[in-house]
Amino acid sequence: MKKESLPEKLFFFAAAGSAIATLSVFVFMLFLGLPLMLEGRFMELFTSPWSPDQGLYGIRAMIAGSLVISVTSLILAFPLSLGCSILIVVLSPRGMGRVLRSTVQFMTGIPTVVYGFVGIFLLVPIIRNLFQYGSGMSILTASLLLGILVTPTMVLVFSDSFQQVPESYLAAARALGGTPLQNFFNVILPCAWRGIVAGVILATGRAMGDTMISLMVAGNSIGLPRSLLDSGRTLTAHIGLVMAADFESLEFKSLFACGIILYLFTSIMAIAARSLYSLKGPGISR
Amino acid sequence: MKGIAEKVVVGYSWMSAFILLGSVTVLGSYLVARGFGALDLELVFGDVHPVNAVLMKERVLSGLWPAIVGTFLLVITALVFAVPIGVASGIYLAEYGKGRIKSTLSLLFDILASIPSIVVGLFGFSVAVFLHQNLSGRIYPCLLISALSLAFLVLPYIIRTTQISLESVPDGLRRTAPALGASKLQNIRHVLLPRSLPALLSGIILATGRCAEDTAVIMLTGVVASAGIPASLLDSYEALPFYIYYISSQYSNPDELAGGYGAALILLIICMLLFGVAFFAKNRFESRISRL
Hints:
The complex is a heterodimer.
Chain A: H1 6-41, H2 44-47, E1 50-51, E2 56-57, H3 60-91, H4 96-107, H5 112-131, H6 139-163, H7 167-175, H8 180-209, H9 212-217, H10 235-242, H11 250-280
Antiparallel strand pairs in A: 1-2
Chain B: H1 2-35, H2 41-45, H3 50-54, H4 65-96, H5 99-114, H6 117-134, H7 143-167, H8 171-179, H9 184-213, H10 216-221, H11 240-250, H12 254-291
């Protein structure tokens, strides 16, 4: 084995250091959250309500809030994303497809705090007047904004995976007299379904991990949400809101449970999206 | 029947694009309508003369200037940490890492990219408190802690861009220098890296945008609503995105709210400009490849 030079060693240390730091986030949170779990109160996290005054630190309402908001935003965003990707890749009206794709790319750069800000002053009053219910800060409001936030992620992954379908397949389908849309449903979609699943998974992680939108427009109430028009609180917003508590308190320690849940959830999403991608090969699935 | 189904799908696709573009247009034009009127020197510098503010002769108490400077310092400090480490890791992954080591590292960087920013913020804050208790009482959540947390947040983007741009160098070019006797390191330094520079720059600019817009990390690690321009890396500081969040929940009069709209518009413009530059760099890069 050839001896490595100093820069080559540094490359390795940088990569190894970054990887270890990734793991250490998890270990550190586990270590700091341990006191709460060692007191035999682990299950309490999932069964009791959030009421620090009574010594109850349950986070089930926040878990429910995170799940409901991400799922609703995906239900809104998925059909939208599919439609946009069809327009970009299949129909691609002259120039329009490219313009749309560039716009969608630019959308990924819009600051989430700007979405939240506009949401508070534009969308919240609309929802309030439309449904005549509550303050307008609701799970639905947050889901609508999050839907717009995650749509670009899905559109980009979808349209990339559509474009990876080998041209020879499409040429064969065209030769058989298929229209662009027939080709899409009979050739592209069956070949690119992994890309679609991966896009949905990535978007779920994005929706689950976002803080500012739910913090600013979901209302942050600590009850279990009963309807989409109820106010709700996500795990991410919960961390932001409880930060002011004393670091040594059990209240603060329960935040690490939120952190661990978010870390695990988004990691699983990342691993799932990754395995779908790496299995994909040259756009062919059997 | 087929004809009708096709028409429905076509109509549906157009409608989707219309809804998406419509929402962004509404968002943008609402901000411009409300914020453009507020955009003036007074919004940024308050009642201080701009020259005096920039030369730090006078403190700006009622303007966005400290928040803009804070965001700028934050982004620069974060990049000082993230770029060297990210590029070095990317080089390792693309040129040295093999087999199981490469796939493990790559998996961990995917996980790193997926960690929600608020969790990174919680980690940064806890590390700061831990250091405060065990190392030095002078360490509090501050600009440095925020910058380090942000660097950690954007690290995976820089690693990936470096790796992908190095790996996409065509084989012919990759083998030329080694065939002439260059070492692997010389090849990286004189051929592969210069070749990947535009894509790399585009990735770094995108990371800059991420640093400038992120709110969740900094609100846990040292940003405050009013601090003035930080004197050192260990001070607390102000930042544009946090100001926007703060105003949205704490504004007490129409002037403050107008300032919030102005700040949101400024942040949006900064991010879009950064994005535009990155986009341009990348397109130049791609058209250069296609000419080869």
